Automatic annotation (TrEMBL):
MF GO annotations: DNA binding; DNA-binding transcription factor activity
Annotated family: Belongs to the LysR transcriptional regulatory family.
Domain HTH lysR-type per the UniProt entry, residue ranges: 4-61
Coiled-coil blocks: none
The name this protein goes by in its record: LysR family transcriptional regulator
Native species: Rhodovarius crocodyli
SUPFAM superfamilies: Periplasmic binding protein-like II, Winged helix' DNA-binding domain
GO terms for cellular component: cytosol
Length: 300
């Protein structure tokens, strides 16, 4: 990157992450004056100011955000290279960061990552919680090696592979009038109170668009965060909702029942998204290949 040294790049990242030169100096075990000198030299080399000096501290300018994104990529790739070369011939080593929703992580990843770890014990994995839109953004910016997102969201310029097709089902409190039906349509449910997820979530977006297409309104009784919380609220009798079949299986309490939905949109597609393979680390490529090979439809 313009001939700059990696130590200066690391110090710049530290300043951005801590918000001050003094905290960055403490974290990196270097003198404050040395950090200031390197930042000034970095700005001179780039020909662009990175920070606005304010009485209360440093205010990052737009150029700093661009440099930070690329610096993360350079430093992560260097770290990965060092790990792989240090253990050359002893199997693939390294770290992989995945961005995915809590529901996806809880429903599918435990067993699938265990199988992967048995094949590649030297690869460590971090799963970061994110809504679909946020997950795509993390893969785009490089803060995640790849992400799992749900349609109707798009991955933009990223590459994608199919991961799972989830059947969405109606979930009802036990004893609800609609529990006597074998199949349901959204129009059957809309006269009743709904438990809904947070704005921007894939399920909430699907539900809102389906209701709008039918020129109907959702009677939102209570809004919560997370599919598991939706299930618990339905179980407690707060309203009806729509969930992936994997989260709607019978519970010990018997307080919730699930019914198939007769709707074209009731098949929700989960996809993996990632940058071009030539800029992905080897561990990330292996994990993407492993998960995409497990592509299947999840039903009740």
């Amino acid at each position: 990157m313009c001939g700059m040294d990696l130590k200066t790049l690391s110090l710049f990242v530290a300043v951005m992450e801590t918000g001050s030169i003094s905290k960055a100096a403490q974290r990196e075990n270097i003198a404050i004056s040395a950090v200031s000198k390197r930042l000034a030299a970095l700005e001179a080399r780039l020909g662009s100011k990175l920070f606005q000096r304010q009485p209360e501290g440093l205010e990052p300018l737009p150029a700093a955000a661009v440099l930070l994104r690329n610096a993360h990529t350079v430093l992560r790739n260097l770290s990965q290279l060092q790990l792989e070369m240090a253990e050359f011939g002893e199997g693939v080593r390294g770290t992989v960061t995945i961005a995915a929703s809590t529901a996806v992580a809880a429903s599918y990843l435990p067993e699938e990552l265990r199988a992967f770890s048995l094949l590649h014990p030297a690869i460590t994995i971090t799963v970061r919680d994110a809504l679909s839109r946020e997950a795509v953004q993390m893969a785009t910016e490089g803060t995640a090696d790849f992400s799992i997102f749900a349609e109707p969201y798009s991955a933009g310029a990223l590459r994608t592979l199919p991961y799972k097709t989830e059947k969405l089902v109606a979930v009802l409190p036990a004893g609800h009038p609609l529990a006597a039906c074998r199949l349901l349509r959204l129009s059957d449910m809309l006269p009743y109170d709904f438990v809904v997820g947070r704005p921007g979530s894939s399920l909430n977006t699907i539900l809102s668009r389906a209701a709008a297409a039918a020129h109907l309104e959702i009677r939102s009784r209570i809004q919560v965060v997370g599919s598991e919380t939706i299930a618990r609220m339905v179980e407690a009798g707060h309203g009806v909702s729509i969930l992936p079949a994997s989260l709607a299986r019978p519970r010990r309490s018997g307080g919730m029942v699930a019914r198939p939905l007769r709707e074209a949109w009731a098949a929700r597609h989960l996809r993996l998204c990632f940058p071009q393979s030539e800029i992905m680390t080897k561990p990330a490529q292996l994990l993407v290949e492993h998960l995409s090979a497990l592509n299947r439809t999840v039903d009740i």
